[in-house]
Amino acid sequence: MEQRGKSTALHILVAAGGTGGHVYPALAIADAVQQDQPNVTLSFVGVVGGFERPLVEGYGLTFSGYFEVRAGPLNGVGRLRQLRSGFDLLLGTFQALGLLLRHRPDAILLTGGWCGLPVSVAGWLLRVPMLVYLPDIEPALTIKTLRFFARRIALTADASQKFFPHNKTVVTGYPLRRTLTDATRSTVPSLTRCPNQSSVSSAIRPNGSSW
């Protein structure tokens, strides 16, 4: 992947992971930014050993770099796993600090997932502006934590505003991938992997909760 050019006006670091429900909205937002600002530089941070890399590499966006930090779950797991995750998150914070110091992003986009915790702490320490996007209605542990570090929080629906300070929130709706917004009747079966068009119906809604 190419390194950031000196003439680039803006560098945005995207951090997402844990589930596709976090990764795909992050990629859709990054795609829209790149379409609107072709000179922007994008980089991506996922979890060490996570499944995000093939999703990112197969999406078709140009990223200046793909990076990984250590992280792990704290909620819904046993005590030993929590201890291991705590160590991973501490190590991941130092990794994220080094990453931000080397690449100096102008802003950070977070959509949830474990890697968001070390990246947000590092961004807060280095005073990098952060935007959190909530792809669900009710935030779970990670985004509940990220809200303290974010300058702005983008929401899918009005119903989520009660979970955040009102002076930080903006309701944007759900970001759709270009493969969906540009879909035609002839391309729908390939997108849904259904055998015929007449059997296809689609609905897009938040998945309820996330890490």
Helix/strand layout:
Layout: E1 11-15, H1 20-36, E2 41-47, H2 52-57, E3 65-69, H3 79-103, E4 107-110, H4 116-125, E5 130-134, H5 141-146, E6 152-155, E7 169-171, H6 178-181, H7 188-192
Parallel strand pairs: 1-2, 1-4, 2-3, 4-5, 5-6, 6-7
Helix pairs in contact: 3-4
Concise account of the structure shown:
The chain is an alpha/beta fold and 211 residues long. It is 35% helix and 16% strand.
Defining key terms:
about 210 residues, alpha/beta, 7-stranded parallel sheet, 7 helices, 7 strands, about 35% helix
Can you put this structure into words, describing what you see?
It is a single chain. The chain has 211 residues and is α/β, with parallel strands linked by helices. 35% of the residues lie in helices and 16% in strands. It is built from seven helices and seven strands; from the N terminus they run βαβαβαβαβαββαα. It has helices at residues 20-36, 52-57, 79-103, 116-125, 141-146, 178-181, 188-192, and strands spanning 11-15, 41-47, 65-69, 107-110, 130-134, 152-155, 169-171. The chain has a seven-stranded parallel β-sheet, sandwiched between helices. Helix 3 (79-103) packs across helix 4.
Strand segment tally: 7
Please describe the biggest sheet, giving its number of strands, its sense, and whether it closes into a barrel.
7 strands, parallel
Mean pLDDT: 84
Output the helix-strand order: EHEHEHEHEHEEHH
Radius of gyration (CA) equals 17 Å
What's the helix count?
Answer: 7
List unreliable stretches of 5+ residues.
1-8, 194-211
Biggest sheet: strand arrangement: 3-2-1-4-5-6-7
Helical proportion, percent range = 25-40%
Structural class label = alpha/beta
Amount of beta strand = 15-25%
* Beginning-to-end CA distance, first to last residue: 29 Å
Shape: globular
